[in-house]
Design a protein that fits this description.
Strand content of chain A: 5-15%
Strand content of chain B: 5-15%
CATH class of the largest domain in chain A: Alpha Beta
Order of helices and strands of chain A: HHHHHEHHEEEH
Number of strands of chain B: 12
Structural class of chain B: alpha/beta
Number of helices of chain B: 18
Structural class of chain A: alpha+beta
Number of helices of chain A: 8
Oligomer: heterodimer
Number of domains of chain A: 2
Strand order of the largest sheet of chain A: 2-1-3-4
Largest interface: A-B, 43 and 54 residues
CATH class of the largest domain in chain B: Alpha Beta
Number of strands of chain A: 4
Largest sheet of chain B: 5 strands, mixed
Shape of chain B: globular
CATH superfamily of the largest domain in chain B: NADH-ubiquinone oxidoreductase 51kDa subunit
CATH topology of the largest domain in chain B: Rossmann fold
Helix content of chain B: 40-55%
Shape of chain A: elongated
Strand order of the largest sheet of chain B: 3-4-2-1-5
Radius of gyration of chain A: 19 Å
Chain lengths: 171, 462
């Protein structure tokens, strides 16, 4: 699909949530799969990356882009707790691993510490929109226990002190 | 075993080991070239079958046999999926391979796809591996440019497209039919089998799903031969006609209360004790081992007097565990309470149950509620029997669920209670001096605390 066609799809449908760029990124996945339904997961990632969450309106628009019922997207979306539906993620999504290897090395204490420091429960975002705290199940970084993943970067062998200064230093 | 030479981790530690240049300089893609130009797909399959390679992702199913279930002369397409959804607590060897030697994974995948006549390969990669995603994406790009992927690979007429499909934080996607459903854009509910994926898999076409480490092994089998592979590890038990043996090198991840946690390559059959003491530098602060998870959380626990268990596919089973699993060894020292182990394990599986089968969805959540109550000082001795009753009735083995997640939830409960019952009973008596002997039905903790809901109550159909 040419750039023009993509833009016209967005304009003709009057999309409020999905920008032409987002639609284009989603359509880039089409050649990889034999049908539109298989593009749901990559598309949800593109949308969450762009909007910070996947609001209802974006689901309805995605249904038109993929040519499948919105209910099928909703069915998939609601299964993967990775996607937020109510409000955008914070600038930094902090995953604190609490599975066994990390728990043995203090992971649960780190989570508790951040819960107090940030004043939010796992799954919630601070009112200033800066941090989203998440309790992670095994991050697959057990040799770095306790491990913390912040957006795309893994922080090995964390302590409360290291976390505190890290969160202050983040831009 | 004295002359064991690591192959899977051979490049790791070299500078820029993730780049094509370094991989090729160390002999990379020579095996692919030889396979594509000199061998038929059937000959590759035969070599892998003779090697008796068993899947490294947890179940240990013979790889050659799995491939042989594909229908002959299928018009296609046939799909090849690499299971890189590594999420079993205590396991990170696939991450190490993808981050530090991604081309080894690609070469193994391309050879495996050739053997299975697949023309599209999807790498199902968990989202929490951003560096592996970057490295693997870049490696795929390099492989396309070098002519190892795409149309007419190395001029042989073999075509293969490869794509990464990123997950979204669900453990169940590591189950091969859950993985297939997830690529199809659906909730990752495992399928009832048969039909097996080899007959009707991804997009209803014949499909093979193999673990990252398994395809890496394929690359080395094709370089060094099935006989080399069979010279490492443990031969079949002569008294068990169904035992295919445990051949080849294996990556073991050792973590928890050890001095040098890490990913180590060793022959299958190495004693668990040797992994802990020699490879991982022993228990921290000179303490004693209390319990060890041999192969990822779902396999259960070994007690301190079971550490001579050989780490092959049947060793941990003989010690009462679910199996070798992923080879993810988690060491707990004498200071760690087993009730905390039970709680951590039950919470994990209750959280990760996909919600499709009632015995798993309800059983894992119920077990967690009981363990939470025990931990909070409201336990009764009969609760341990109740936990065992739940554990004995959820899973494929008792025949109540579609996939093995519930079996994985059950084994930590069964092994912890059967091997550490004394400690757990002491905990209950000590923390609930007036109520430990009660036997009457009891309300959940959630009901007791004014109806405020524990985190378990959010578990259910996702």
């Amino acid at each position: 699909m040419s750039e023009e066609n993509r833009t016209s799809l967005v304009e003709s449908k009057g999309f409020a949530f999905l920008s032409p760029e987002v639609v284009a990124s989603i359509q880039d996945y089409f050649p990889r799969y034999p049908n539109g339904r298989a593009v749901v997961l990559p598309a949800l990632h593109v949308i969450q990356e762009s909007l910070g969450f996947v609001p209802k309106g974006a689901v309805l628009e995605l249904a038109q882009v993929l040519g499948i019922p919105a209910s099928e997207i909703e069915d998939t979306l609601s299964f993967y707790q990775f996607f937020k539906q109510d409000r955008p993620l914070g600038k930094y999504r902090i995953w604190v691993c609490r599975s066994l290897s990390c728990a043995l090395c203090g992971g649960e204490n780190l989570l508790e510490h951040l819960r107090e420091q940030l004043g939010v429960q796992p799954g919630e975002t601070t009112p200033d929109g800066r941090f989203t705290l998440e309790a992670a199940e095994c991050l697959g970084a057990c040799e770095c226990a306790p491990a913390v993943l912040i957006n795309d970067k893994l922080y090995p062998r964390m302590t409360q002190e290291k976390l505190d200064s890290l969160l202050k230093e983040l831009p | 075993m004295e002359s064991f030479e690591p192959v899977l981790l051979a490049n790791i530690g070299k500078a820029d080991s993730h780049t094509l240049k370094v991989y090729e300089r160390n002999g990379g893609y020579q095996t692919l070239r030889r396979v594509l130009t000199q061998l038929s797909p059937q000959e590759v399959l035969e070599e892998v079958r003779i090697s008796a390679l068993r899947g490294r992702g947890g179940a240990g199913f013979p790889t050659g046999l799995k491939w042989s279930f594909l229908p002959a002369d299928h018009p296609g397409p046939i799909y090849f999926c690499v299971n890189a959804d590594e999420s079993e607590p205590g396991t990170f060897c696939n991450r190490v391979l993808m981050e530090l030697d991604p081309h080894q994974v690609l070469e193994g995948t391309i050879i495996s796809a050739y053997a299975t006549r697949a023309t599209t390969a999807y790498v199902y990669l968990r989202y929490e591996y951003p560096l592996a995603y970057q490295r693997l994406s870049h490696a795929i790009q390099e492989a396309y440019q070098a002519g190892y992927l795409g149309k007419n690979i190395l001029g042989t007429g073999f075509n293969l497209e490869m794509f990464i499909h990123r997950g979204a934080g669900a453990y169940i996607c590591g189950e091969e039919t859950g993985l297939i459903e997830s690529i199809e854009g659906k909730r990752a509910w495992p399928r009832t089998k048969p039909p097996f994926p080899a007959v009707e898999g991804l997009f209803r076409k014949p499909t093979v799903v193999n673990n990252v480490e398994t395809v890496a092994c394929v690359r080395h089998i094709m370089e060094r031969g099935a006989e080399w592979f069979r010279s490492i590890g443990v031969p079949p038990d002569p008294n068990d006609p169904r035992d295919p043996g445990s051949f080849g090198p294996k990556l073991f991840c050792v973590s928890g209360h050890v001095n040098r946690p890490g990913c180590f390559e060793a022959p299958l059959g190495i004693p668990c004790r040797q992994l802990i003491e020699e490879y991982a530098g022993g228990v921290r602060q000179g303490r004693q081992v209390k319990a060890v998870v041999p192969g990822g959380l779902s396999t259960g626990v070994l007690s301190a007097d079971e550490l001579d268990t050989p780490m092959d596919f049947s060793g941990p089973i003989k010690a009462g565990c679910l199996g070798l699993g992923t080879g993810g060894v988690i060491v707990m020292d004498e200071t760690y309470p087993m009730i905390d182990f039970l709680h951590n394990s039950c919470r994990f599986f209750a959280h990760e149950s996909c919600g499709q089968c009632t015995p798993c969805r309800e059983g894992t959540a119920w077990a967690l509620r009981i363990v939470e109550r025990i931990k909070a000082g409201r336990g009764r001795l009969v609760d341990l029997d109740l936990l065992l009753e739940i554990a004995d009735n959820i899973g494929i083995i008792p025949g109540t669920t579609i996939c093995g997640l519930a079996d994985g939830a059950a084994w930590p409960i069964k092994t912890a209670i059967r091997k550490f019952r004394g400690e757990l009973e002491d905990y209950i008596k000590h923390t609930n001096p007036h109520g430990w002997s009660a036997t009457a039905p009891i309300l959940d903790l959630a009901h007791e605390t004014n109806g405020s809901r524990s985190e378990t109550t959010s578990v259910g159909i996702k």
